[in-house]
Write a structure and sequence with these properties.
Layout (H helix, E strand, L loop, with lengths): L9 E9 L4 E9 L9 H15 L4 E7 L11 H5 L4 E6 L6 H13 L3 E4 L11 H18 L8 E5 L6 H9 L17 E5 L3 E5 L11 H10 L9 H15 L1 H8 L9 H11 L11 H13 L14
Parallel strand pairs: 3-4, 3-6, 4-5, 6-8
Antiparallel strand pairs: 1-2, 7-8
Helix pairs in contact: 7-8, 7-9, 7-10, 9-10
The chain binds guanosine-5'-triphosphate and magnesium ion (MG).
Protein backbone atom coordinates (compact mmCIF):
# COMPACT_ATOMS: atom_id res chain seq x y z
CA UNK A 1 0.00 0.00 0.00
CA UNK A 2 1.26 3.51 -0.81
CA UNK A 3 2.16 5.36 2.40
CA UNK A 4 -0.29 8.11 3.21
CA UNK A 5 -2.86 6.70 0.79
CA UNK A 6 -5.66 4.76 2.42
CA UNK A 7 -7.67 2.05 0.72
CA UNK A 8 -11.41 2.40 1.20
CA UNK A 9 -12.47 0.80 4.47
CA UNK A 10 -8.97 0.86 5.87
CA UNK A 11 -8.47 1.50 9.55
CA UNK A 12 -5.67 1.88 12.04
CA UNK A 13 -5.69 -1.16 14.27
CA UNK A 14 -3.37 -2.66 16.81
CA UNK A 15 -2.83 -6.37 16.34
CA UNK A 16 -0.53 -9.28 17.04
CA UNK A 17 1.41 -11.03 14.34
CA UNK A 18 3.22 -14.22 15.15
CA UNK A 19 6.57 -14.20 13.50
CA UNK A 20 8.90 -17.17 13.82
CA UNK A 21 11.75 -14.79 14.54
CA UNK A 22 10.07 -12.38 16.90
CA UNK A 23 6.60 -11.55 18.09
CA UNK A 24 5.61 -8.01 17.31
CA UNK A 25 2.85 -5.72 18.30
CA UNK A 26 2.45 -3.56 15.26
CA UNK A 27 0.40 -0.51 14.57
CA UNK A 28 -0.27 -0.55 10.88
CA UNK A 29 -2.87 0.27 8.33
CA UNK A 30 -4.74 -2.77 7.04
CA UNK A 31 -7.75 -3.14 4.76
CA UNK A 32 -10.82 -4.23 6.72
CA UNK A 33 -11.29 -7.37 4.68
CA UNK A 34 -7.93 -8.69 5.85
CA UNK A 35 -8.30 -7.88 9.53
CA UNK A 36 -9.64 -11.21 10.69
CA UNK A 37 -6.43 -12.93 9.65
CA UNK A 38 -4.72 -11.47 12.72
CA UNK A 39 -5.51 -11.58 16.41
CA UNK A 40 -6.51 -8.11 17.57
CA UNK A 41 -6.80 -7.53 21.30
CA UNK A 42 -10.50 -6.93 20.61
CA UNK A 43 -10.78 -10.33 18.93
CA UNK A 44 -9.11 -12.00 21.88
CA UNK A 45 -11.40 -10.30 24.38
CA UNK A 46 -14.40 -11.37 22.30
CA UNK A 47 -13.17 -14.97 21.96
CA UNK A 48 -12.68 -15.12 25.70
CA UNK A 49 -16.12 -13.65 26.36
CA UNK A 50 -17.76 -16.23 24.08
CA UNK A 51 -15.76 -18.96 25.80
CA UNK A 52 -16.93 -17.76 29.20
CA UNK A 53 -20.54 -17.78 27.98
CA UNK A 54 -20.22 -21.26 26.45
CA UNK A 55 -18.55 -22.59 29.59
CA UNK A 56 -21.83 -22.11 31.43
CA UNK A 57 -23.43 -24.62 29.05
CA UNK A 58 -20.95 -27.47 29.35
CA UNK A 59 -19.69 -30.01 31.89
CA UNK A 60 -16.35 -30.76 30.24
CA UNK A 61 -14.00 -28.76 28.00
CA UNK A 62 -11.89 -30.46 25.36
CA UNK A 63 -8.79 -28.57 24.31
CA UNK A 64 -7.44 -29.87 21.02
CA UNK A 65 -3.69 -29.51 20.71
CA UNK A 66 -1.24 -30.61 18.06
CA UNK A 67 0.60 -33.69 19.38
CA UNK A 68 3.78 -32.48 17.64
CA UNK A 69 3.78 -29.31 19.75
CA UNK A 70 1.66 -29.98 22.84
CA UNK A 71 3.03 -26.91 24.62
CA UNK A 72 3.13 -24.40 21.77
CA UNK A 73 -0.31 -25.26 20.43
CA UNK A 74 -2.10 -24.49 23.71
CA UNK A 75 -3.97 -21.27 24.39
CA UNK A 76 -2.31 -19.24 27.16
CA UNK A 77 -5.48 -18.36 29.11
CA UNK A 78 -7.64 -21.44 28.67
CA UNK A 79 -6.80 -23.31 31.87
CA UNK A 80 -7.34 -20.19 33.93
CA UNK A 81 -10.61 -19.37 32.14
CA UNK A 82 -11.95 -22.90 32.46
CA UNK A 83 -11.33 -22.78 36.20
CA UNK A 84 -12.37 -25.94 38.03
CA UNK A 85 -14.35 -27.39 35.13
CA UNK A 86 -12.76 -30.69 33.95
CA UNK A 87 -10.39 -30.19 31.04
CA UNK A 88 -9.43 -32.92 28.57
CA UNK A 89 -6.38 -32.30 26.41
CA UNK A 90 -6.85 -34.17 23.15
CA UNK A 91 -3.47 -34.54 21.51
CA UNK A 92 -4.57 -34.63 17.88
CA UNK A 93 -2.42 -35.52 14.85
CA UNK A 94 -0.72 -38.13 17.02
CA UNK A 95 -0.12 -40.06 13.80
CA UNK A 96 2.44 -37.38 12.89
CA UNK A 97 4.10 -37.21 16.31
CA UNK A 98 6.84 -39.29 17.91
CA UNK A 99 4.97 -41.98 19.92
CA UNK A 100 7.59 -42.04 22.69
CA UNK A 101 7.27 -38.30 23.27
CA UNK A 102 3.50 -38.48 22.98
CA UNK A 103 3.47 -40.95 25.89
CA UNK A 104 5.69 -38.58 27.89
CA UNK A 105 3.38 -35.65 27.18
CA UNK A 106 0.36 -37.70 28.20
CA UNK A 107 2.07 -38.47 31.49
CA UNK A 108 3.05 -34.81 31.89
CA UNK A 109 -0.53 -33.57 31.47
CA UNK A 110 -1.85 -36.22 33.86
CA UNK A 111 0.75 -35.30 36.46
CA UNK A 112 -0.67 -31.77 36.27
CA UNK A 113 -4.17 -33.02 36.97
CA UNK A 114 -5.43 -32.81 33.37
CA UNK A 115 -6.89 -35.67 31.39
CA UNK A 116 -5.02 -36.34 28.14
CA UNK A 117 -5.61 -38.56 25.14
CA UNK A 118 -3.66 -38.95 21.88
CA UNK A 119 -5.83 -39.31 18.77
CA UNK A 120 -5.69 -39.32 14.99
CA UNK A 121 -8.85 -37.58 13.83
CA UNK A 122 -8.26 -38.43 10.19
CA UNK A 123 -8.07 -42.20 10.58
CA UNK A 124 -9.94 -42.43 13.87
CA UNK A 125 -7.26 -43.96 16.09
CA UNK A 126 -7.94 -43.20 19.76
CA UNK A 127 -11.31 -41.58 19.05
CA UNK A 128 -13.27 -44.38 20.76
CA UNK A 129 -11.68 -43.31 24.05
CA UNK A 130 -12.97 -39.73 23.97
CA UNK A 131 -16.66 -40.03 24.90
CA UNK A 132 -16.17 -42.60 27.71
CA UNK A 133 -13.55 -40.28 29.20
CA UNK A 134 -15.83 -37.25 28.86
CA UNK A 135 -18.62 -39.20 30.58
CA UNK A 136 -16.27 -40.24 33.34
CA UNK A 137 -15.05 -36.67 33.82
CA UNK A 138 -18.59 -35.27 33.87
CA UNK A 139 -19.65 -38.17 36.10
CA UNK A 140 -20.15 -36.66 39.54
CA UNK A 141 -22.45 -33.98 38.16
CA UNK A 142 -24.70 -36.29 36.15
CA UNK A 143 -24.89 -38.76 39.06
CA UNK A 144 -25.94 -36.02 41.47
CA UNK A 145 -28.57 -34.88 38.99
CA UNK A 146 -29.91 -38.44 38.92
CA UNK A 147 -29.99 -38.82 42.70
CA UNK A 148 -31.74 -35.47 43.12
CA UNK A 149 -34.66 -36.96 41.24
CA UNK A 150 -33.99 -35.19 37.96
CA UNK A 151 -33.56 -37.14 34.77
CA UNK A 152 -29.92 -37.74 33.93
CA UNK A 153 -28.89 -36.02 30.74
CA UNK A 154 -25.96 -36.67 28.45
CA UNK A 155 -22.82 -34.81 29.53
CA UNK A 156 -22.24 -31.65 27.54
CA UNK A 157 -18.87 -30.67 26.25
CA UNK A 158 -17.24 -28.18 23.95
CA UNK A 159 -14.16 -28.30 21.78
CA UNK A 160 -11.69 -25.43 21.67
CA UNK A 161 -8.21 -24.85 20.35
CA UNK A 162 -5.95 -22.66 18.30
CA UNK A 163 -6.43 -22.58 14.49
CA UNK A 164 -5.86 -25.68 12.36
CA UNK A 165 -5.24 -28.19 15.17
CA UNK A 166 -8.09 -30.39 13.88
CA UNK A 167 -11.12 -29.30 15.92
CA UNK A 168 -13.55 -29.86 13.04
CA UNK A 169 -12.02 -33.22 12.10
CA UNK A 170 -12.37 -34.33 15.71
CA UNK A 171 -16.01 -33.25 15.83
CA UNK A 172 -16.73 -35.07 12.57
CA UNK A 173 -15.08 -38.20 13.91
CA UNK A 174 -16.99 -38.06 17.18
CA UNK A 175 -20.26 -37.39 15.44
CA UNK A 176 -19.59 -40.08 12.88
CA UNK A 177 -20.68 -37.91 9.99
CA UNK A 178 -19.58 -34.84 8.13
CA UNK A 179 -21.34 -32.32 10.33
CA UNK A 180 -18.77 -29.56 10.65
CA UNK A 181 -16.99 -27.80 7.86
CA UNK A 182 -13.34 -28.72 7.58
CA UNK A 183 -10.61 -27.25 5.47
CA UNK A 184 -6.83 -27.16 5.64
CA UNK A 185 -6.37 -23.54 6.51
CA UNK A 186 -6.68 -21.63 9.77
CA UNK A 187 -9.90 -19.84 10.66
CA UNK A 188 -12.54 -21.72 8.66
CA UNK A 189 -15.16 -22.57 11.27
CA UNK A 190 -17.64 -19.72 11.74
CA UNK A 191 -20.97 -21.21 12.78
CA UNK A 192 -22.11 -22.72 16.07
CA UNK A 193 -24.11 -25.90 16.62
CA UNK A 194 -24.83 -28.77 19.04
CA UNK A 195 -24.08 -32.28 17.96
CA UNK A 196 -25.45 -35.36 19.72
CA UNK A 197 -22.83 -38.08 19.79
CA UNK A 198 -24.59 -41.47 19.74
CA UNK A 199 -26.87 -40.42 22.61
CA UNK A 200 -23.92 -40.35 24.95
CA UNK A 201 -22.48 -36.86 24.83
CA UNK A 202 -23.68 -33.53 23.50
CA UNK A 203 -21.00 -31.57 21.75
CA UNK A 204 -21.06 -27.82 21.20
CA UNK A 205 -19.34 -26.98 17.95
CA UNK A 206 -18.37 -23.39 18.77
CA UNK A 207 -15.98 -21.57 16.50
CA UNK A 208 -13.81 -22.58 19.47
CA UNK A 209 -10.89 -20.78 17.96
CA UNK A 210 -8.48 -19.38 20.52
CA UNK A 211 -5.22 -17.56 19.98
CA UNK A 212 -1.83 -19.15 20.53
CA UNK A 213 0.94 -17.85 22.77
CA UNK A 214 2.49 -14.64 21.46
CA UNK A 215 5.30 -14.07 23.90
CA UNK A 216 7.83 -16.62 22.70
CA UNK A 217 9.59 -16.63 19.30
CA UNK A 218 10.25 -20.37 19.67
CA UNK A 219 6.52 -20.93 19.82
CA UNK A 220 6.10 -18.87 16.64
CA UNK A 221 8.63 -21.05 14.86
CA UNK A 222 6.94 -24.29 15.93
CA UNK A 223 3.49 -23.03 14.96
CA UNK A 224 4.84 -22.05 11.55
CA UNK A 225 6.52 -25.42 10.98
CA UNK A 226 3.36 -27.36 11.82
CA UNK A 227 1.12 -25.15 9.69
CA UNK A 228 -0.86 -23.38 12.43
CA UNK A 229 0.14 -19.99 11.02
CA UNK A 230 -0.69 -18.96 7.48
CA UNK A 231 2.31 -19.37 5.20
CA UNK A 232 1.97 -15.80 3.94
CA UNK A 233 2.87 -14.21 7.26
CA UNK A 234 6.31 -15.65 7.90
CA UNK A 235 9.55 -16.30 6.03
CA UNK A 236 9.18 -19.85 4.74
CA UNK A 237 12.85 -20.15 3.83
CA UNK A 238 13.97 -19.14 7.33
CA UNK A 239 11.56 -21.56 8.98
CA UNK A 240 12.24 -24.47 6.61
CA UNK A 241 16.00 -23.87 6.83
CA UNK A 242 15.83 -24.11 10.59
CA UNK A 243 13.73 -27.25 10.37
CA UNK A 244 16.19 -28.82 7.92
CA UNK A 245 19.12 -28.05 10.22
CA UNK A 246 17.20 -29.53 13.18
CA UNK A 247 16.42 -32.69 11.24
CA UNK A 248 20.03 -32.99 10.09
CA UNK A 249 21.32 -32.61 13.64
CA UNK A 250 18.77 -34.82 15.41
CA UNK A 251 17.42 -37.25 12.82
CA UNK A 252 20.08 -37.48 10.09
CA UNK A 253 18.40 -40.51 8.53
CA UNK A 254 15.31 -38.45 7.67
CA UNK A 255 17.07 -36.26 5.12
CA UNK A 256 19.22 -39.07 3.82
CA UNK A 257 16.25 -41.33 3.17
CA UNK A 258 14.16 -38.73 1.41
CA UNK A 259 16.63 -36.36 -0.25
CA UNK A 260 19.87 -38.38 -0.27
CA UNK A 261 21.60 -35.75 1.86
CA UNK A 262 24.20 -36.85 4.38
CA UNK A 263 23.91 -35.03 7.69
CA UNK A 264 27.62 -34.20 7.54
CA UNK A 265 26.98 -32.14 4.38
CA UNK A 266 24.11 -30.24 5.97
CA UNK A 267 25.69 -27.87 8.45
CA UNK A 268 24.11 -24.61 7.33
CA UNK A 269 20.31 -24.15 6.95
CA UNK A 270 20.59 -22.44 3.55
CA UNK A 271 22.95 -25.18 2.42
CA UNK A 272 20.52 -27.95 3.37
CA UNK A 273 17.75 -26.21 1.44
CA UNK A 274 20.05 -25.96 -1.57
CA UNK A 275 20.82 -29.68 -1.31
CA UNK A 276 17.13 -30.54 -1.03
CA UNK A 277 16.32 -28.37 -4.05
CA UNK A 278 19.14 -29.96 -5.96
CA UNK A 279 17.95 -33.47 -5.17
CA UNK A 280 14.55 -32.60 -6.63
CA UNK A 281 15.75 -30.63 -9.62
CA UNK A 282 14.32 -27.35 -8.29
CA UNK A 283 16.58 -25.11 -10.32
CA UNK A 284 16.14 -21.50 -11.41
CA UNK A 285 17.08 -20.12 -14.80
CA UNK A 286 20.86 -19.91 -14.87
CA UNK A 287 21.25 -23.10 -12.84
CA UNK A 288 20.92 -21.70 -9.30
CA UNK A 289 18.93 -23.87 -6.89
CA UNK A 290 15.48 -22.49 -6.02
CA UNK A 291 15.77 -22.55 -2.23
CA UNK A 292 12.29 -21.02 -1.84
CA UNK A 293 10.69 -23.95 -3.65
CA UNK A 294 12.87 -26.32 -1.64
CA UNK A 295 11.59 -24.66 1.55
CA UNK A 296 7.94 -25.02 0.48
CA UNK A 297 8.55 -28.66 -0.45
CA UNK A 298 10.27 -29.51 2.83
CA UNK A 299 7.49 -27.92 4.91
CA UNK A 300 4.83 -29.71 2.87
CA UNK A 301 6.49 -33.11 3.20
CA UNK A 302 7.29 -32.62 6.88
CA UNK A 303 3.66 -31.66 7.66
CA UNK A 304 2.32 -34.62 5.70
CA UNK A 305 4.47 -37.01 7.75
CA UNK A 306 6.44 -38.13 4.69
CA UNK A 307 9.73 -37.68 6.55
CA UNK A 308 8.59 -39.61 9.62
CA UNK A 309 6.97 -38.83 12.96
CA UNK A 310 8.43 -35.92 14.88
CA UNK A 311 7.62 -34.01 18.03
CA UNK A 312 9.27 -30.60 18.25
CA UNK A 313 9.20 -30.15 22.01
CA UNK A 314 9.40 -32.36 25.07
CA UNK A 315 7.82 -31.82 28.49
CA UNK A 316 10.00 -29.72 30.73
CA UNK A 317 12.15 -28.33 27.90
N1 LIG B 1 -2.41 -36.22 9.99
C1 LIG B 1 -3.46 -35.68 10.60
N2 LIG B 1 -4.03 -34.57 10.09
C2 LIG B 1 -5.10 -34.05 10.72
C3 LIG B 1 -5.64 -34.63 11.89
N3 LIG B 1 -6.71 -33.87 12.28
C4 LIG B 1 -6.83 -32.88 11.37
N4 LIG B 1 -5.86 -32.98 10.43
C5 LIG B 1 -5.63 -32.06 9.31
O1 LIG B 1 -5.53 -30.75 9.84
C6 LIG B 1 -6.18 -29.82 9.00
C7 LIG B 1 -7.08 -28.92 9.82
O2 LIG B 1 -8.15 -29.66 10.37
P1 LIG B 1 -9.49 -28.93 10.84
O3 LIG B 1 -10.32 -29.94 11.54
O4 LIG B 1 -10.08 -28.17 9.73
O5 LIG B 1 -8.86 -27.91 11.91
P2 LIG B 1 -9.65 -26.81 12.80
O6 LIG B 1 -8.99 -26.84 14.14
O7 LIG B 1 -11.10 -27.06 12.78
O8 LIG B 1 -9.26 -25.47 12.05
P3 LIG B 1 -10.02 -24.03 12.12
O9 LIG B 1 -11.49 -24.26 12.00
O10 LIG B 1 -9.47 -23.32 10.96
O11 LIG B 1 -9.62 -23.43 13.42
C8 LIG B 1 -6.92 -30.64 7.95
O12 LIG B 1 -6.24 -30.50 6.73
C9 LIG B 1 -6.83 -32.06 8.39
O13 LIG B 1 -6.58 -32.92 7.32
C10 LIG B 1 -5.01 -35.80 12.42
O14 LIG B 1 -5.37 -36.36 13.46
N5 LIG B 1 -3.93 -36.27 11.73
MG1 LIG C 1 -12.64 -25.86 12.12
Amino acid sequence: MVPGKSEPGAAIKRFFILSPVSCILAEVEVPRAKMDIQWFPGHMARARRILQEDLKLVDVVIEVVDARIPYSSRNPVLEETVGRRPLLVVMNKADLADPVLTARWEEHFRSRGLAALPVDSVRGAGIAGVTPLVREMAGPKTVSLGSSGRLPRPPRCMIVGIPNVGKSFLINRLAGRKSAKTENRPGVTRGRQWIRVAGEVDLLDTPGILWPKFDDPEVGYRLAVTGAIKDQVYDQEAVAGRLAAWLAANYPGSLEGRYKIRAADAADPQEVLALIGNSRGLVLQGGRVDTYKAAVLLLKEFRAGVLGRYTLESPGS
